């Protein structure tokens, strides 16, 4: 599969598709303002990719980098491209791009107590097929708990807070964000 990750700094041709996918793939309470993501994408430590499979646009990948860490903030595959192995291929291509780094993401906590348990479990299995491993760590943002998955090693609270602060700036002081060791 010919996967290409094109930084939108260099090609904004599919910006409206990216915006529409972003708005449809993520719940409103988990979305940062799209214009803010675009502004931040101009920073050196942010990679906002338009993902392609061959010549076909396939999705978006938003990664924040700090020191030896790379955190997937947002990843989504266009609905018309799902179920074809493209999402897994994009994530594997990203792992190659970020080789040698702690490359991680957060998924909603997988626990039977949630109404959408089967959806959460399915998402967890998808990331495992793409090579991500459960770190045994959970992260809390406000009152939402996520599980961390990644490759290349665990992330501690100090490193995570630095990464988030590098993205958000001083506003981080207003959020409860911490990694909870299992």
Low-confidence stretches: none
Mean pLDDT: 92
CATH fold descriptor: Aminopeptidase
Radius of gyration: 16 Å
Largest sheet: 8 strands, mixed
Name of the CATH first level: Alpha Beta
At CATH's second level, what is the architecture? 3-Layer(aba) Sandwich
* Dominant shape: globular
Widest sheet: strand order? 1-2-3-4-5-7-6-8
Task: List strands and helices in order, with pairings.
Elements: E1 3-7, H1 15-25, H2 34-40, E2 46-53, E3 56-66, E4 69-77, H3 86-97, E5 102-108, H4 117-129, E6 133-141, E7 144-151, H5 157-168, E8 177-181
Parallel strand pairs: 4-5
Antiparallel strand pairs: 1-2, 2-3, 3-4, 5-7, 6-7, 6-8
Describe this structure in words.
It is a single chain. With 182 residues, the protein is of the alpha+beta class. The protein has a single domain (3-181), classed as 3-Layer(aba) Sandwich (Aminopeptidase), CATH 3.40.630. The chain has five helices and eight strands. The protein has helices at residues 15-25, 34-40, 86-97, 117-129, 157-168; strands at residues 3-7, 46-53, 56-66, 69-77, 102-108, 133-141, 144-151, 177-181. It has an eight-stranded mixed beta sheet with strand order 1-2-3-4-5-7-6-8, sandwiched between helices. A hairpin with a 2-residue loop joins strand 2 and strand 3 (56-66). The chain is globular, with a radius of gyration of 16 Å.
């Amino acid at each position: 599969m010919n996967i290409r990750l094109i930084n939108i700094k260099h090609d904004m041709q599919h910006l409206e598709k990216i915006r529409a996918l972003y708005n449809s793939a993520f719940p409103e309470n988990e979305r940062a303002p799209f214009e803010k993501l675009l502004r931040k994408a101009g920073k050196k430590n942010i990679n906002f990719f338009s993902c392609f499979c061959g010549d076909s646009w396939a999705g978006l990948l938003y990664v924040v980098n700090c020191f030896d860490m790379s955190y997937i903030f947002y990843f989504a595959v266009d609905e018309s491209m799902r179920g074809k192995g493209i999402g897994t291929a994009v994530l594997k291509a990203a792992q190659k791009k970020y080789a040698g780094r702690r490359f991680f993401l957060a998924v909603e906590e997988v626990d039977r107590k949630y109404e959408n348990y089967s959806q959460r479990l399915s998402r967890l299995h998808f990331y495992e097929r793409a090579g991500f491993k459960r770190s045994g760590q959970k992260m809390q943002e406000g009152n939402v708990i996520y599980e961390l998955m990644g490759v290349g090693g665990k992330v501690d609270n100090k490193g995570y807070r630095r990464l988030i602060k590098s993205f958000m700036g001083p506003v981080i002081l207003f959020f409860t964000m911490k990694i909870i060791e299992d």
